[in-house]
Design brief:
Structural class: mainly alpha
Strand content: under 5%
Distance between the termini: 77 Å
Largest sheet: none
Number of helices: 2
Length: 58
């Protein structure tokens, strides 16, 4: 029984059983996603300008 446990552990962890890693292929962005990103970027810049003006006044 003492030899069976390490033997089973070596057999289960062998590279022959491991699946090779397939790198994910990045997907292209849709036009809708680009529009939402542009709108959110403009909103972020506008919010930063408003915060800057608020901080400068104080």
């Amino acid at each position: 029984m003492r030899i069976l446990t390490p033997l089973m552990a070596m057999m289960l962890a062998s590279p022959a059983l491991a699946k090779s890693f397939d790198r994910p292929i990045p997907q292209a962005q849709s036009a809708t996603a680009e529009i939402w990103f542009a709108l959110s970027s403009v909103a972020l810049i506008a919010a930063l300008v408003l915060v800057h003006r608020l901080v400068v006044r104080r």
